[in-house]
Amino acid sequence: MILDLALIWALILAIGVFVYVALDGFDLGVGILFPLMRDERERDTAIGAIAPVWDGNETWLVLGGGGLLAVFPLAYAVIFPALYVPLIAMLLALVFRGVAFEYRVHSKRHKWLWDGAFFGGSLIAAFAQGIALGAWLQGIEVVDRAYSGAWWDWLSPFSIATGLALVCGYSLLGATWINLKTEGKLNERARMLVFPLAAATIAFIVAVSLWTPLLDPRYSDRWFTWPTMLYALPVPLFVAVTMWTLWQALNKDRPLTAFLSAELLFLLCYIGLGISVWPDIVPTSISIHEAAGPDKSLGFLLVGAVFLVPLILAYTASAYWIFRGKVKDGGYHH
Q: Which of 101, 118, 133, 217 has the fewest Cβ atoms within 10 Å of its own Cβ atom?
């Protein structure tokens, strides 16, 4: 049997991108919620909740971007010129956020400035990711295997809506993470924040889900015609069940269940996104097989991925296991 290397790599990159969203999403969310921390002690505790893992979380972003260039060079050559502005804004915000993360520890007089930079970097990075997602989903103009759209095509009401949706969703992840990892008043306030953030996230999910089929007839066909609707329609049902589970977990003070429910909500949205665009890697223009590099290259890179991806998974899992305890005054206890 001949392996479909393009399909295998599409699945690897899709998993890598989701792992990035799931992991870096909550620590970006903690940064977005930073202004709601009441004093320096609470901010230090919130930072302590993500300090051991935040930089490792961004490894998956490198895997996604580097893998796209190596495996689907045509998609890389089309997507990056189309989304140049939001992607550069995201990268600069992540760099600035990383600098602020380290500098605030050592700065006394200007700690408030670095706190603001940490918040701003987190907010801009999340919003830029949502903008890029919306611009990608609404379609990219391609002529002769090259981007043919205008400089500002990425900016639209739909992409702004997806940007705000991701900011809200990441804030939900951040609140559930703080609820899981902290104690006392900060823990209680984070738990109370989850309720309105969950309601707002669901409102955005419904709005974007209703809006997406209007972008292109192919999207509506995937969701509302037979037999593809068999795969699509269970997704909203699972979303409803997940929200009920999140609500119950909060009421019964089960922070781990609440956090995992919020992550599952993102996974279901990701699956719904995949149903809408599959098998395109540039929606409505280029499929994964059209964008893939030569099979020899894909096979060679796959050998490296077989060793590299489990290694990344192993050290990521070990970091979360080692620092699995609660945070108290910026430190861990078990």
A: 217
